[in-house]
TrEMBL record:
This is Response regulator transcription factor. GO terms for molecular function: phosphorelay response regulator activity; transcription cis-regulatory region binding. Residues 2-116 form the Response regulatory domain. The modification 4-aspartylphosphate is found at residue 51. Residues 124-218 form the OmpR/PhoB-type domain. Keywords: DNA-binding, Phosphoprotein, Transcription, Transcription regulation, Two-component regulatory system. GO terms for cellular component: cytosol; protein-DNA complex. It comes from the Bacteria. Residues 124-218 bind DNA. It comes from Pseudothauera rhizosphaerae. GO terms for biological process: regulation of DNA-templated transcription. Pfam families: Response_reg, Trans_reg_C. Gene3D superfamilies: 3.40.50.2300, 6.10.250.690, Winged helix-like DNA-binding domain superfamily/Winged helix DNA-binding domain.
Amino acid sequence: MRLLVAEDEPTLAAQLREALAAAGHAVDVADNGRDALFLGEEEPYDAVVLDLGLPQMDGLSVLRRWRAAGHTMPVLILTARDAWHEKVAGIDAGADDYLTKPFHLEELLARVRALLRRAAGQASAELVCGPLVLDTRSARVSVDGRPLALTGHEFRVLAYLMHRPGRIVSRSELTEHIYAQDFDRDSNTIEVFIGRLRKKLPPGCIETVRGLGYRLVCPP
């Protein structure tokens, strides 16, 4: 999944990028409100972590602009401990959740997982497709209870498909959601990742829909 972190404090931004990347996500970082606004308007993020105290344009204004433009990605806002009015204003502006600084990274990761699950209509932290199980808490995959070794990109492709079981996902959509902005993207490599996954997953798990893309097929 592809995430945007909008945070101007360099140490915290680096910690968030590292923790979210370790959880299997592609992460972009903006250190001011104007860059965050632009990225949120131009890139298809699966979720955003948005600090309200950004320079150049505050996070609340950024969020309002996104929502007014029809951008519906889940947004987790970060607020100061005593700024309860910011929490209320953020929720009213279209935020999906909030977290008060200082916070534990584990809690932020859990809240991001919950936002991604809800956006995909998933209720459990474990995504299940027949014998295939992806645990979003540990970023681990198993088949019939046996751990499956995946590269980072293979995991991101599979995670994106498992958040959308039965839905056709185009190659270009996968490309947009598994790479960070500064990564050299090549949509042709998606076929390579799909091929590798098919060798590791049960037969018929990933179906090719000719001319359209790929679909994760779960047995009844």
